[in-house]
Amino acid sequence: GEFARIDHHRQLRTGFPETIWGQGKTPDQIVQIMAAMRQRNSVVMATRIEPDVAEQLEEKVEGLRYYPMAKIAAIAPVRIEPQYPGKIGILSAGTADLPVAEEAAITAELSSFRVLRLWDVGVAGIHRLLDNRHVIAEASVLIVVAGMEGALPSVVAGLADCPVIAVPTSVGYGASFGGLAPLLTMLNSCAAGIGVVNIDNGFGAAILAGQILRTAGKLQ
Amino acid sequence: GEFARIDHHRQLRTGFPETIWGQGKTPDQIVQIMAAMRQRNSVVMATRIEPDVAEQLEEKVEGLRYYPMAKIAAIAPVRIEPQYPGKIGILSAGTADLPVAEEAAITAELSSFRVLRLWDVGVAGIHRLLDNRHVIAEASVLIVVAGMEGALPSVVAGLADCPVIAVPTSVGYGASFGGLAPLLTMLNSCAAGIGVVNIDNGFGAAILAGQILRTAGKLQ
Amino acid sequence: GEFARIDHHRQLRTGFPETIWGQGKTPDQIVQIMAAMRQRNSVVMATRIEPDVAEQLEEKVEGLRYYPMAKIAAIAPVRIEPQYPGKIGILSAGTADLPVAEEAAITAELSSFRVLRLWDVGVAGIHRLLDNRHVIAEASVLIVVAGMEGALPSVVAGLADCPVIAVPTSVGYGASFGGLAPLLTMLNSCAAGIGVVNIDNGFGAAILAGQILRTAGKLQ
Amino acid sequence: GEFARIDHHRQLRTGFPETIWGQGKTPDQIVQIMAAMRQRNSVVMATRIEPDVAEQLEEKVEGLRYYPMAKIAAIAPVRIEPQYPGKIGILSAGTADLPVAEEAAITAELSSFRVLRLWDVGVAGIHRLLDNRHVIAEASVLIVVAGMEGALPSVVAGLADCPVIAVPTSVGYGASFGGLAPLLTMLNSCAAGIGVVNIDNGFGAAILAGQILRTAGKLQ
Amino acid sequence: GEFARIDHHRQLRTGFPETIWGQGKTPDQIVQIMAAMRQRNSVVMATRIEPDVAEQLEEKVEGLRYYPMAKIAAIAPVRIEPQYPGKIGILSAGTADLPVAEEAAITAELSSFRVLRLWDVGVAGIHRLLDNRHVIAEASVLIVVAGMEGALPSVVAGLADCPVIAVPTSVGYGASFGGLAPLLTMLNSCAAGIGVVNIDNGFGAAILAGQILRTAGKLQ
Amino acid sequence: GEFARIDHHRQLRTGFPETIWGQGKTPDQIVQIMAAMRQRNSVVMATRIEPDVAEQLEEKVEGLRYYPMAKIAAIAPVRIEPQYPGKIGILSAGTADLPVAEEAAITAELSSFRVLRLWDVGVAGIHRLLDNRHVIAEASVLIVVAGMEGALPSVVAGLADCPVIAVPTSVGYGASFGGLAPLLTMLNSCAAGIGVVNIDNGFGAAILAGQILRTAGKLQ
Amino acid sequence: GEFARIDHHRQLRTGFPETIWGQGKTPDQIVQIMAAMRQRNSVVMATRIEPDVAEQLEEKVEGLRYYPMAKIAAIAPVRIEPQYPGKIGILSAGTADLPVAEEAAITAELSSFRVLRLWDVGVAGIHRLLDNRHVIAEASVLIVVAGMEGALPSVVAGLADCPVIAVPTSVGYGASFGGLAPLLTMLNSCAAGIGVVNIDNGFGAAILAGQILRTAGKLQ
Amino acid sequence: GEFARIDHHRQLRTGFPETIWGQGKTPDQIVQIMAAMRQRNSVVMATRIEPDVAEQLEEKVEGLRYYPMAKIAAIAPVRIEPQYPGKIGILSAGTADLPVAEEAAITAELSSFRVLRLWDVGVAGIHRLLDNRHVIAEASVLIVVAGMEGALPSVVAGLADCPVIAVPTSVGYGASFGGLAPLLTMLNSCAAGIGVVNIDNGFGAAILAGQILRTAGKLQ
Ligand SMILES: Nc1ncnc2c1ncn2[C@@H]1O[C@H](COP(=O)(O)O)[C@@H](O)[C@H]1O
Ligand SMILES: Nc1ncnc2c1ncn2[C@@H]1O[C@H](COP(=O)(O)O)[C@@H](O)[C@H]1O
Ligand SMILES: Nc1ncnc2c1ncn2[C@@H]1O[C@H](COP(=O)(O)O)[C@@H](O)[C@H]1O
Ligand SMILES: Nc1ncnc2c1ncn2[C@@H]1O[C@H](COP(=O)(O)O)[C@@H](O)[C@H]1O
Ligand SMILES: [Mg+2]
Ligand SMILES: [Mg+2]
Ligand SMILES: [Mg+2]
Ligand SMILES: [Mg+2]
Ligand SMILES: [Mg+2]
Ligand SMILES: [Mg+2]
Ligand SMILES: [Mg+2]
Ligand SMILES: [Mg+2]
Q1: What is the distance between the alpha carbons of residues G215 and F195, in angstroms, rounded to a whole number?
Q2: Which of the pair, H203 or F2, is modelled with greater confidence?
Q3: Cα–Cα–Cα angle for G154, G159, G161, nearest 5°?
Q4: Residue G111's Cα: distance from chain center in Å?
Q5: C-alpha pair distances (Å), F92 with each of A60, D6, G96, G140
Q6: What does the DSSP 8-state code read for residue H162?
Q7: Most Cβ neighbours (<10 Å): which of E71, E92, E200, H22?
Q8: Cα separation of E105 and C141, whole Å?
Q9: Helix (H) or strand (E) segment spanning residue A195
Q10: What is the rounded CA–CA span in Å between residue F68 and residue F98?
Q11: Which H, E and C letters describe F151-166, residue by residue?
Q12: Which residues line ligand 4 (CB under 6 A)?
């Protein structure tokens, strides 16, 4: 449609699925953009889709799949084969961070990457993390999702020997100020080598992790 | 002097040394207040005393001792005997946090408490902390000092079984915003039971730790 | 469940009830976590439970008790005997601060501590506080809850001779900025020795107060 | 001069001294404006004059008087008779707030008002204030100056029966954020009827207090 | 009730109506407090009462009057005679600021003061203000209410010869940040002698204006 | 030099002088860039040049002229003929805003525009502005410079019938927060049609005003 | 009505349609103001009108037209002839910015200006913009609307040779902080000559663009 | 030393040089830590070393090299052979961003990576960037350094097909707020897959870029 100028160029170049940012778009707009996109892509996805919008989409878009925890709606082959070397390890600090962590995980899987999940290993019970160090060791790139004080990426980066992507979440209250607290925490990490993305941006973290593994693939 | 109304009442009641907040006071004002205070107290101290001010004070105040790292100047007996049960464990995350950690330590010692120091155990190298868990175990109350992302108190509180007082410092740059980042981190800690004091306020942390041990003493 | 990694370790070590942070969790998640927890604990509680969620929980969790003012749901023995020395005095500045003050009070009682309540003694009518000084005198540790300008902890700390924990609340409007105003007030208190917790965090204040009394108990 | 368009109109109408805001002006500019002003006014004053600038002014402006604590330079009759009913009571919380409190006091006296001073009565030692309630009772309007947590105006307004003007100061550190903390405290005061001025604006507080007494005079 | 400690002391001393801050209180709590208050006061009022709450109150409180624009509910004599000298002039910048301006006006009238209203005289059409200068001239104290850029108090203070109370409102969007913009504008006014109250605090402005006129009355 | 990639393209296209932003550059860097630029341009200028840097530049760059109030150093013909229709009116609120206003004025004149200056017409003395309305009437585009509360652009835009460019300045203290206050004021102006530039950005305002007059020239 | 003081003066002088800011006004107030305005104006418009309010207005105001994307309701001739030279080019970065871009476009068209629209040309796919440079070349003034990082105006200003007006939008999440991020981006643009308006203020941008073209017309 | 607990563990594991954060450390402390570190490492470096500190270090540390633009002091072999596949492309927006860009470049080179530099390609002159697209194509990972509005990473990420690391700088003034503006810009980038580090943190960006290439190496 005229209101949306699809950047096929970038999609072809990068190999990631075409993605619609669902927030602030009407169901009708999403349906139209999806229709245009699916003509040239095997995987089309939309993020930030609330359950009631998903229901409307499912009626109009054939073959749509909805991931309620991740709030992602997608048109995709039933089975997506991993196409890149390595694994993306995704860790989350608390149960309430799961939607963001799953947004990252589903995005990565729809983009043909292998994913390792490790949930609820926040720093206040450090043994939960230390007991699962094999996940950190097995991954080639890590996405660490945390709200509240957002301290998990610092600890993980101290234990890991691969790039760490930190995702602050808006989980918390009071002096969290909508995720500002964990965002600042992550930016100020004394563990060098952490890349931070926007608050609640699981999608962007997955794309960056994917870029890292694709680059590794190209350098081989 | 007329410009300073000393609260002897509180001092007598609490047993802590009379303390002058040195910032924003002229050396002359400090000398006058110290003179008035020492008539009724065995320990008188001033915080936030820069080395050049300390030199001026030393000329005019007999028996003054200066602690350069802590920036504290004090009139006190040569040896202060511990008068309360238990120990105050003080941990700091990085080398640059030392002045604040020492402000806490010297204040506690001048107030007749036992102090255990553990420096440079930031979370990015978690083994430095885990290898020294005996310090955490030995203390009855902990003061945890950290700048940058300020994650140390959360991890410590998860390991400890006593009250934890968190002190954010202004150590850092950029998105630290003068200590705002570690302050928010500490307030949002998912480890319940942490009391936070003002940025760089080692003094206040020591007073609170002292109050806790004095209360323990009274409950016996 | 897989989405929640319970830290039994910490619970055993600290003696506090296992607690679920209800915000951002579905009723089903809460029911599942409660079921897992109650197998090993005599007291299980959940905070931030809205009345409509409480109703759903009550249907599925046998023996659940709901404290509407505190927004706490708990499984607990009918009578909880105090197990620690001393009393936790809880003061609130205004009527609208009651939910936070009660969150602290109920948490403390479910954790086997004695509680003294003193409501609506804000500083603009200082005699309401001065007329009740016996409460301050009787407590071994104080929790002071205040919204708006949050000045009450400073005044109380000046009158008290025990540790003071300050809880800012989001009560207010305009330049309160969701509790930022009383939070800053409390962090900047000129009465040294105040530990501050997150905005509206009555729960955390109670845990810290409890830790202080438990420590006192251990030092005996 | 062309760079400064003096508003004689307002001065005549209000009866307050012509005042130059010294900050960000060169000594030469100040001398020129003073020269222009003194032709039509018996009292001319400049605020925010640092000692070294004052020295330069004293050389070039005959009869200039400098108040170092208040950082005010003025040309004025040796004795200024009070011309209005009532007294302006000025209270300050701490020693470090004195420069702002004196800026208010000297401005008020140069404007022909009676002033009562009461210094260092911060809320952490409430008896220092309660013991001096006669000052509050004697004043017809109160200016209350406080930095750090800025709680004094709330307590004073609860005791007083006249208008209260609150002046936050930049005294403090860390989470004071240059006076933001006491500013928010004062704006959120639960004691209705407090008018707040800018951080460190002792001058503006004195003008407002003066307006109140002048209005009272006109209504007689 | 136990949850609300009424400060009759202050009410008697100041002569203003007892006032309940309606926000964050249940209708039942408001009814109970009103019942307790009306036994000792001829005028009892509650602010921040939404229309649906007002309906519930009207059913249970006899003789209650509701002012929908001001969101005030009151028990008061049918006619309140002015008891103090002078008039309170209330100006508002835009139509959307009316609720706050009326909160001030009704509070003042229920407190027995004379009120002059002048609405919609924002600075972008300065002639609307200049054409109504007689209102400014007739008032003994001015309340100036403005949202958006909040510039009106500065201009009014330049024209007036009496105390000016500025009330920022949350009217606006975007970079207004909930009223922060006009609040900062008013605090930084280059017209000295403006007292600022909290965002949307029409009530507090009226109490301060009233205090000023009462003081004038006492000085006679 | 390699560290500076001059955009001759844009300069040729727009006709404005090549301009170096002096802040954060060493005198040597500035000299080198100026040398490269003057080969292709008749006017080369540098902003934010402190007097001591200017002295160093004057030694090394032949024909350099320094404007101390505007802090601009320039290589330019002795007389620059106006080349565009209309006049740029520049108004400033206070004496301390002059450096920013002059930065705008000198930039405009070096860019071949006619300039009208009107200084010290802040809103607190509205008659100073109303008495000079002819300046507003004569200009084809207005630049309005104001610090503190920054209200002048709103009032001017209400009187003018041409585009208004607002420049907030960092003049002020306390709640000005380095110019944030007037910036927000100007962005929230209820007088539609005001374009705002960065704090203290007199240069950018002049370029925008120039663009407007050049566009007018092209449309003829 | 008494609550709204219409500034016919300004409307006549500027030639723009009378405009009501719909936010925070009741449908009844809007109907009354429209009725008063249409007596003297051929075009009357209201912004920020939600669909449900529009329906109520349409019932009571004859000949009202509603633009749902722009959220503008207007009384206007069926065909509005362009009356000024030049064209206003309006660019938007993303699909979600359309409501703000259309607010600008409809306002400009109702004000008798020619409009060129170019949607969804955000900087992350720079070729979408470069491929449409003819739009930039054809316009005499540009309005550039962008949310999220708000980088589009900088790039456009580097390509254009006419005034650029930047409109930040509240489109985004997390660290966008309601549009603060693109607002700061635009104010800090290294491309000099950009005028910024309030977040989401498409209306104001259109008025400023219109003023620029009207000025051009007058200079002819 | 006791004040610094070196984390040899991490250094061995990661292969990066041991690095001292020079800010807030005395020259003596730096000398001591360097001495301890060089015993086990072939490359030791310190960041944030001002020229005068560098001079003191050079006297005491044999073989020290100082990079004045990057403010890095290092002990390292004369020639460091690249040890990893791929190249790190480093782009900077303006001349004033060079110190941060060089901190990244020197850190990368001391860590045995190949570096491509491209300076002064800010978005306001987009052709400077487009003319150098070969640099983007040749790199396997990109570091993009920008102050002011910080828009460069978004544009680069749209052109690149590899991971992008964004470094906001504190270059700018006014509404840059010490680098907050470009930080927010980068976090909100609509080009997914950008990892952001702290303001002015060229060091951290280099470590993250290095981790990415090392990971690629390990996956081969
Ligand atoms: N570094 C510090 N930070 C916070 N409060 C302090 C500090 N040093 C002293 N104080 C407090 O400041 C009070 C004295 O303030 P003053 O009367 O201004 O000297 C003492 O009673 C302490 O409670
Ligand atoms: N310390 C101060 N704080 C706020 N406003 C002041 C101060 N001193 C003077 N003023 C005001 O600034 C005006 C003069 O400003 P100026 O023309 O820049 O000298 C006076 O009329 C006062 O209203
Ligand atoms: N969307 C808008 N954003 C900013 N200002 C507006 C908007 N719509 C209308 N206005 C302005 O608001 C004024 C009317 O405000 P009001 O008197 O409250 O209806 C108009 O003259 C316009 O200048
Ligand atoms: N410029 C810098 N910015 C951020 N982190 C740094 C910087 N320089 C060194 N570091 C980190 O700081 C650690 C050393 O800190 P310290 O022990 O205080 O010297 C190193 O291991 C690095 O990870
Ligand atoms: Mg958990
Ligand atoms: Mg270290
Ligand atoms: Mg009450
Ligand atoms: Mg004192
Ligand atoms: Mg209006
Ligand atoms: Mg002036
Ligand atoms: Mg798009
Ligand atoms: Mg450049």
Answers
A1: 15
A2: H203
A3: 105
A4: 11
A5: 60, 14, 39, 29
A6: S
A7: E92
A8: 45
A9: strand A194-196
A10: 11
A11: CHHHHHHHHCCCCEEE
A12: A 190, 192; B 94-96; H 4, 19-21, 47-48, 201, 203-204
**Rg, chain C, Cα only:** 17
As a whole number, mean pLDDT of residues A190-198 equals: 94
User: Which residues of chain H, if any, have pLDDT below 50?
Assistant: 1
Stated length of chain F: 220
B215-B217-B218 Cα angle (round to 5): 65
User: How much is the mean pLDDT over chain D?
Assistant: 93
CB neighbours of residue C15 within 10 Å: 15
**Mind listing the pLDDT tens digit for each residue in H18-39?**
999 999 888 999 999 999 999 8
Asked if the Cβ–Cβ distance from D201 to F174 is below 8 Å, we say yes
Mean pLDDT of G84-112: 96
Q: Do C196 and B193 lie within an 8 Å CB cutoff?
A: no
Residue B2: count of CB within 10 angstroms of its CB: 7
Contact D114, D82 (CB under 8 A): yes
Residue D17 · residue D46 · CB < 8 Å = no
Q: If you average pLDDT over residues C143-166, what whole number do you get?
A: 96
* DSSP letters spanning H96-127: GGHHHHHHHHHHHHHTT-EEEEE----GGGHH
ipTM over 0.90: yes
H54 residue type, one letter:
A
Nearest residue, CB atoms, B125 vs list H2, H7, H168? H7
Q: How far apart are CA F89 and CA D43, in angstroms?
A: 35
Q: What is the pLDDT of residues C119-147, one digit of tens each?
A: 999 999 999 999 999 999 999 999 999 99
Strands H141-146 and H164-168: parallel
- Where do the H-state alpha helices sit in chain A? 8-14, 27-38, 51-60, 98-110, 126-130, 133-138, 152-159, 180-187, 202-219
Ligand closest in space to the Cα of H201: 4
Cα B192 to ligand 12 centre (Å): 50
Q: Which of A13, A85, A193 sits opposite H211 (nearest CB)?
A: A193
Please report residues of H whose CB lies closer than 8 A to that of A204: 192-194
Spatial distance between the Cα atoms of H216 and A215, rounded to a whole number of angstroms: 7
Picking from H58, H13, H11, H14, the residue whose alpha carbon sits closest to that of residue H39 is H11
- F88 - beta bridge partners? F115, F141
| Residue found by looking up tokens 């207090």 in the block | D209
F166-195 pLDDT per residue, tens: 999 999 999 999 999 999 999 999 999 899
Report whether E209 contacts E165 (CB < 8 A): yes
Cα C58 from Cα E125, distance rounded (Å): 61
Looking at residue H13, its pLDDT comes to: 64
Considering only CA atoms, which residue is closest to atom 11 of ligand 3? G21
Helix axes G98-110, G202-219, angle to 10 degrees: 40
The pair of structure tokens assigned to H20 is: 């001292």
**What is d(CA E17, CA E112) in angstroms, rounded to the nearest whole number?**
9
